[in-house]
Amino acid sequence: MAAGALAVGVSIVAFRGKDSKESESSDAPRVLITEDFHSAYERKQVLPDGWSGDAFRIVDDNGKQCLEVSKPKGEHFVTLPPVALRGNFMIEAAYIMGNPSFATYHYLAFILESSKGADPLPLIVDWEGKITIADDPRAAPPNYKPLLPTRVRVTREGKKLSISLNDEIVATKDLRDLVEFDQLRIGMPGGAGNSGRLERLYLLKVATLK
After folding, report:
1. pLDDT of residue 203 exceeding 90
2. Which of 65, 66, 83, 88 could form a disulfide with 32 if both were Cys (CB 3.0 to 4.6 A apart)?
3. Which residues, other chains included, contact 3 with Cβ-Cβ below 8 Å and sequence gap of 6+?
4. What CATH number is given to the structural domain containing 138?
5. Which domain covers residue 51, as residue numbers?
6. Is the Cβ–Cβ distance between 170 and 164 less than 8 Å?
């Protein structure tokens, strides 16, 4: 456990370090949502203001606050406050997944939704590092390490969508049209069951890009 906690700390430090460099640049992204869950944890494990989802809670994991699923079974989604992802955007997160069990499929999903009637766009990273963009599955990168903290980044530039794991682009897809998304949901399964571990999200940042 000590090694895992150290790895999480390294991941989060690297994540924050990148943020600080961006804030010094004139081309810095316009941040819509940034959350490290610390203030939520101080408010007795409630979700951040404006978030909704009855299966989620904020917990302390070796001194690091994170979002996790609090129900042992089923697929659950937490909805973030509305975000106008107009044009180019970026979603970054630091997460760790629990061991898979026969009863539970472990994944992290970002569901992009539009109020203009377009179909939702699901982006899924599974326990093995396999990526699925809508109905388009991709193989896991060869250096992906399950059970270790992972940084994931989703970037949209025009009609091109890319997903990277630990700063390595592992999937790209050309979108058919320029849909503007204005709602973001995060999906994680309940997973206490046989594995004793849950999906945990430590940091989240959503920003528009020039």
Report:
1. yes
2. 83
3. none
4. 2.60.120.200
5. 2-208
6. yes
